[in-house]
Amino acid sequence: xxxxxxxxxxxxxxxxxxxxxxxxxxxxxxxxxxxxxxxxxxxxxxxxxxxxxxxxxxxxxxxxxxxxxxxxxxxxxxxxxxxxxxxxxxxxxxxxxxxxxxxxxxxxxxxxxxxxxxxxxxxxxxxxxxxxxxxxxxxxxxxxxxxxxxxxxxxxxxxxxxxxxxxxxxxxxxxxxxxxxxxxxxxxxxxxxxxxxxxxxxxxxxxxxxxxxxxxxxxxxxxxxxxxxxxxxxxxxxxxxxxxxxxxxxxxxxxxxxxxxxxxxxxxxxxxxxxxxxxxxxxxxxxxxxxxxxxxxxxxxxxxxxxxxxxxxxxxxxxxxxxxxxxxxxxxxxxxxx
Length: 338
What we know:
The chain is α/β, with parallel strands linked by helices. It folds into 2 domains: about 1-180, Glucose-6-phosphate isomerase like protein, domain 1 (Rossmann fold), CATH 3.40.50.10490; about 190-320, Rossmann fold (3-Layer(aba) Sandwich), CATH 3.40.50. Helices cover about 45% and strands about 15% of the residues. The chain has 14 helices and 10 strands. The protein has helices at about 1-5, 10-15, 20-35, 45-60, 70-75, 95-110, 125, 145-165, 165-185, 190-195, 210-225, 230-235, 260-270, 300-320, and strands at about 40, 65, 85-90, 110-115, 130-135, 200-205, 225-230, 250, 275-280, 290. Strand 3, helix 6 and strand 4 form a beta-alpha-beta unit. The relative contact order is 0.15.
């Protein structure tokens, strides 16, 4: 896991160096399509990439984006009217039966299918109308790291091409070097807080919500740490009451309109004695919170940098907690659900 997460920047480099013409063509196709809605379909870490896609598409392409429930097609056998919609399927292997059933149902019901996958010869890529190869290369750790980060980069490339966003294109061009820098960040101050914890909330908002979901999942699967992800807004609707001394919160912020709220939340939690870790909070006063170093970057790519820094922390935390981050118990690399 450690080596693969460290190699994520090279996966993104490889992706950016190739397929420029095909990504440009995808952008042209989507502008002509003018989809009435976007539907994402994924499981696990790929579904967290889909959360990122939702916020990026809705804030840049301004098209409503929602997540499909694969069981509607694979278990209930129901087809939906998705004519004129873009259906985005995200997967590491491209072989899960429920994902493939959802793609088949979407195509037969009139959707244009875009696949983002790390396996070029997969059934998913063969079934798609449009495709983005993640180019993360072999990934042997059960916990997906570089393929997840490559998914985010691939999604951002498609959105930049679709919307012809030069600012986002420039941010993507700088991403691999920023990832190298982010990997070297020292988040070891969080180890003392998390090593003996039984529970953890990971909090994000907007473009960073998917990052919070991904970090929480990795804490569960590699560290045997019960972690749940919340939007900073949803946290106020009930879950907030559980946070107390001994129940830490890790806040992931990016430099956009959501940052101030995250900084305010960090101060509020710390004032209540909650062990509070804040990454990406800028220079704002977060008295009582432990500030984790981050790289200043555009909000659209900040979640990629935050997750990569978190992966390094989590790999170390797993070992500190007596776990093997490469081979979590009871889990397989490829999960084929129906």
